[in-house]
């Protein structure tokens, strides 16, 4: 599932391509991906312009010139591609939005959605999300306050969108590794030093991953050499059985609260 770095990478690329370009066509191949009748959805968008692309957690918000917003959540397996019909990868598309000869393809939206909302509706949809850890207003002290009184496994906390926004399975494991903490470490037992180390690890991993395009498997457009570059940089995620690059141990895969977890038992600890 695309997480904060992947969606921020998409936001940057979309902002370079789509701002103030009129929408010339809309195709909906899966009605469950949108929140209204296909004809009404297309009629509302054709002629509209995207004036700003915002990311919030794992979502993108396309701000239209009339104040409404398109809210996108790609969910599991979701991808975006921008280009001509001839350039389009051989994948099923759920929604297609045309900007002249170029088309923004929403792929793999079987579990995701693209909803046209009012400002009030979009704000309500985002209202329960926790803070962004890369926000410049976030401080070590505020982060420690977020953890105060929390209980349970570290990974469960990191992927809880109502506590911390934007982190999913991949980066939770990468952050725990960077912080030298087990994903199963109990939050209520973390020392102040461990919490400070965790804060720095979150910011480092998310920043590094964002700068090199996240771990998406497919370029955003023809000629895109950035998207997906972090896939080869993951230290533990999807690396079961491989040697740890830090300590020489072997990466283990297990499950925690129904989620797959990757970690090194030699260099990750409870504190």
TrEMBL record:
Residues 2-112 form the Formamidopyrimidine-DNA glycosylase catalytic domain. Residues 235-269 form the FPG-type domain. GO terms for molecular function: 8-oxo-7,8-dihydroguanine DNA N-glycosylase activity; class I DNA-(apurinic or apyrimidinic site) endonuclease activity; damaged DNA binding; double-stranded DNA binding; zinc ion binding. GO terms for biological process: base-excision repair. This is Formamidopyrimidine-DNA glycosylase. Its cofactor is Zn(2+). Its EC number is 3.2.2.23, 4.2.99.18. The keyword Ribosomal protein does not apply. It catalyses: Hydrolysis of DNA containing ring-opened 7-methylguanine residues, releasing 2,6-diamino-4-hydroxy-5-(N-methyl)formamidopyrimidine; 2'-deoxyribonucleotide-(2'-deoxyribose 5'-phosphate)-2'-deoxyribonucleotide-DNA = a 3'-end 2'-deoxyribonucleotide-(2,3-dehydro-2,3-deoxyribose 5'-phosphate)-DNA + a 5'-end 5'-phospho-2'-deoxyribonucleoside-DNA + H(+). InterPro entries: FPG_cat, FPG_N, H2TH_FPG, Ribosomal_uS13-like_H2TH, Znf_DNA_glyclase/AP_lyase, Znf_FPG/IleRS. Transmembrane segments: none annotated. Keywords: DNA damage, DNA repair, DNA-binding, Glycosidase, Hydrolase, Lyase, Metal-binding, Multifunctional enzyme, Zinc, Zinc-finger. Belongs to the FPG family. PANTHER family: FORMAMIDOPYRIMIDINE-DNA GLYCOSYLASE (PTHR22993). It comes from the Bacteria. Pfam families: Fapy_DNA_glyco (PF01149), H2TH (PF06831), zf-FPG_IleRS (PF06827).
């Amino acid at each position: 599932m695309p997480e904060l770095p992947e969606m921020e990478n998409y936001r940057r690329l979309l902002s370079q391509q789509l701002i103030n370009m009129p929408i010339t066509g809309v195709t909906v191949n899966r009605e469950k991906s949108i929140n209204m009748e296909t004809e009404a959805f297309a009629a509302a968008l054709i002629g509209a312009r995207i004036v700003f692309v915002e990311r919030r957690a794992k979502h993108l918000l396309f701000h239209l010139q009339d104040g409404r917003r398109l809210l996108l959540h790609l969910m599991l397996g979701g991808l975006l591609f921008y280009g001509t019909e001839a350039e389009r990868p051989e994948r099923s598309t759920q929604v297609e939005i045309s900007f002249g000869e170029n088309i923004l393809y929403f792929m793999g939206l079987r579990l995701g959605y693209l909803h046209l909302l009012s400002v009030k509706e979009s704000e309500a949809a985002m209202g329960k999300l926790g803070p962004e850890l890369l926000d410049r207003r976030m401080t070590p002290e505020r982060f420690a306050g977020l953890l105060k009184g929390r209980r349970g496994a570290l990974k469960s906390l990191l992927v809880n969108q109502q506590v911390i926004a934007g982190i999913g399975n991949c980066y939770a494991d990468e952050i725990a590794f960077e912080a030298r903490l087990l994903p199963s470490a109990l939050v209520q037992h973390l020392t102040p030093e461990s919490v400070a180390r965790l804060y720095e690890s979150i910011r480092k991993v998310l920043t590094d991953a964002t700068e090199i395009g996240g771990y998406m498997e497919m370029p955003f457009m023809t000629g895109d050499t950035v998207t997906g570059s972090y896939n080869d940089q993951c230290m533990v995620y999807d690396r079961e059985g491989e040697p740890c690059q830090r300590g020489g141990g072997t990466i283990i895969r297990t499950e925690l609260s129904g989620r797959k977890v990757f970690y090194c038992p030699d260099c990750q600890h409870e504190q």
